[in-house]
Automatic annotation (TrEMBL):
Protein name, UniProt field: Uncharacterized protein
Transmembrane segments: 52-77, 98-120, 140-163
GO cellular component: endomembrane system
Compositionally biased intervals (Low complexity): 179-188
Region of interest called Disordered, as start-end residue ranges on this chain: 169-200
Principal place of residence: membrane
Swiss-Prot/TrEMBL keywords: Membrane, Signal, Transmembrane, Transmembrane helix
Membrane topology type: Multi-pass membrane protein
Localisation: Endomembrane system
Compositional bias (Pro residues): 191-200
C-alpha cells in the first residue's frame, strides 16, 4: 500500500514527461509554408510526423490525468487511520485537481488543433489580388501544449500528495472527558492530598 504512494506520482510524471517530449518533437517537425503546395486551385498539405506525434502526446497526457485523478479519488474516499478527521489540505487538494484538469483540457485542445493542421489534406486557397495564400498553423502550438501538460501533471501530483498528507503527530489531541470536574478551590495536582477538615 505504501509503495503506491511513490509509484503513482512517478508513473504520472513519466507519462507527462513522455507527452512533453513528443510535443516538442512535434513542434520541430510541424508543417511549414515551404511544405504546402498549390495545385488545381487548392492548397495541398502533405503528411507530417507532427500529426502522429501530436496524437501520441495527447494520449499520454490523458492517461497521466486519469491515473492522477483515480489516485486522488482513492485517497479522498479513504479515511485516515484511527478514524480521525480528514486532511486539512482537502480543499486545496480538490482545487489543485480541478485546476489540473482545466490546464490539461487546454493542452489537449492545443494538441488537437496542431494535429488537425498537420494532417494530409487539401484546403481552399485564399486569393489576395494577384497573390494566392495558403493558411497554415502559426505559433508554437505543440510547445505550448507540452508545457501545459507538464503543469497539469504537477498540479495533479500536488493534489495527490495533499490528500495523502496526515496531520502532524505532535498536534494536541483532545483529552478524554470522564465527566468529573474539580471542585472550586480544590488542588489540580493529584499528588497532593486535600487539606484536613478541622472540627469547630
Amino acid at each position: 500500500m505504501e509503495g503506491s504512494v511513490v509509484v503513482l506520482p512517478v508513473v504520472v510524471l513519466l507519462f507527462a514527461v513522455a507527452s512533453a517530449v513528443l510535443g516538442f518533437m512535434a513542434e520541430a517537425s510541424k508543417l511549414t509554408p515551404a511544405d504546402i503546395k498549390y495545385s488545381g486551385g487548392v492548397c495541398v498539405y502533405p503528411a507530417k510526423p507532427a500529426h502522429v506525434l501530436g496524437i501520441c502526446a495527447a494520449a499520454l497526457l490523458v492517461a497521466a490525468q486519469i491515473i492522477a485523478s483515480a489516485a486522488g479519488i482513492c485517497c479522498g474516499c479513504s479515511k485516515p487511520p484511527g478514524g480521525g478527521a480528514a486532511s486539512p489540505n482537502r480543499k486545496k487538494a480538490v482545487s489543485s485537481a480541478v485546476l489540473s484538469w482545466v490546464v490539461a483540457v487546454v493542452a489537449a485542445a492545443s494538441y488537437a488543433q496542431g494535429v488537425a493542421w498537420n494532417a494530409a489534406t487539401t484546403r481552399g486557397a485564399v486569393r489576395d489580388g494577384w497573390f494566392v495564400r495558403c493558411h497554415y498553423l502559426k505559433g508554437a502550438i505543440f510547445r505550448r501544449a507540452a508545457l501545459l501538460g507538464l503543469a497539469a501533471a504537477v498540479l495533479g501530483i500536488c493534489s495527490y500528495a495533499m490528500l495523502r498528507e496526515r496531520p502532524a503527530s505532535g498536534a494536541a489531541e483532545p483529552k478524554p472527558d470522564d465527566g468529573q470536574q474539580p471542585a472550586a478551590g480544590q488542588a489540580q495536582n493529584p499528588s497532593y492530598p486535600p487539606p484536613p477538615v478541622q472540627a469547630v
